[in-house]
Amino acid sequence: MERESRFIRDLFTNAVKxxxxxxxxxxxxxxxxxxxxxxxxxxxxxxxxxxxxxxLKTLLSKHRVASQSEEITISQGNYRLFM
Length: 83
Fold this sequence. Notes:
The protein is an alpha+beta fold. It is 39% helix and 27% strand. The protein has helices at residues 6-13, 43-47, 51-62, 76-82, and strands at 15-18, 22-26, 33-39, 69-74. The longest helix is centred in the C-terminal third of the chain and has 12 residues, at 51-62. The radius of gyration is 12 Å and the shape is globular. 8% of the residues are buried.
């Protein structure tokens, strides 16, 4: 596995809430509120992926600041689409 970027390290240390099946992380950004809701058993697979940081940074660059907050959910069903 390649070295994790600071962005990904900060993301996974910002766990906001632990639910039964999901964990919610606050995306490290200053200009808006964005949350990543990940199925708990997929966290390690997603953390090792290089696609996560690219996807989040693309969403942040195209996202409108006017919205109050956004939550992105990654579950078993949409995990294959994410990869």
